[in-house]
């Protein structure tokens, strides 16, 4: 029985091979035909693709062109608490740019709001407010000096000193003749306030003012602030 099955399967295999041979021969590619085609493409352009710019295409009916909405001051103030430093930095820049866009009343409100941020517990919000005040510039120096000398909170005092230093850093054109009011206020803070945190922050800011911005050609103070007296 086994031998019959073996003989039968052998005969069927042979018959199938002979019957399929012409078909398989017909599937062979001619020896002269190339195995693949070469496509030329310009440098920087993928093969078979045509570069299309968004501006080249009409806006479909029922759709409108996307336009980024400018954030309000309140929205940028909220970003000062963002966990990402890049977002906080952008918020500081935008607040400084927009602080006086609507006139003097808005200017005062924004500066006062930034001063309130110097009293917050969150260090990221305080630092972002310091940078924004620095970018606003010289006009914030008198209230910063007042707050530096009046507050009993050493963290707030340090933030005020750092904000004065930020004004110098962000506005290097002020360095050769930095406002004497600010220098006198920092001198008083160093001499009269025993707190080491205040002294370190204030001395650091004085170092920024005295050192100048050599990279951009701005020298430091030509005369000392009188702190050595």
Helix content class = 55-70%
CATH fold topology of the domain at 73-215: Leucine-rich Repeat Variant
Low-pLDDT windows of residues: 15-20, 32-41, 48-55
What's the architecture of the domain at 73-215, going by CATH?
A: Alpha Horseshoe
At the first level of CATH, the class of the domain at 73-215 is: Mainly Alpha
Individual helix count: 9
Q: Overall pLDDT, averaged?
A: 78
- Major β-sheet profile: none
End-to-end distance = 122 Å
Number of strands: 0
Percentage of residues in DSSP E strands? under 5%
The helix/strand class is: mainly alpha
Shape: elongated
Radius of gyration: 37 Å
Instruction: List the helices and strands in order.
Output: HHHHHHHHH
Organism: Guillardia theta (Cryptophyte)
InterPro entries: ARM-like (IPR011989), ARM-type_fold (IPR016024)
Pfam families: HEAT_2
Keywords: Lyase, Signal
Itemize the secondary structure elements and their pairings.
Blueprint: H1 2-26, H2 73-79, H3 85-98, H4 104-117, H5 123-136, H6 141-150, H7 154-170, H8 180-192, H9 196-211
Describe this structure in words.
The chain has 229 residues and is mainly α. It has a domain at 73-215: Leucine-rich Repeat Variant (Alpha Horseshoe). 57% of the residues lie in helices and 0% in strands. It is built from nine helices and no strands. It has helices spanning 2-26, 73-79, 85-98, 104-117, 123-136, 141-150, 154-170, 180-192, 196-211. Mean pLDDT is 78; it is low at 15-20, 32-41 and 48-55. It comes from Guillardia theta (Cryptophyte).
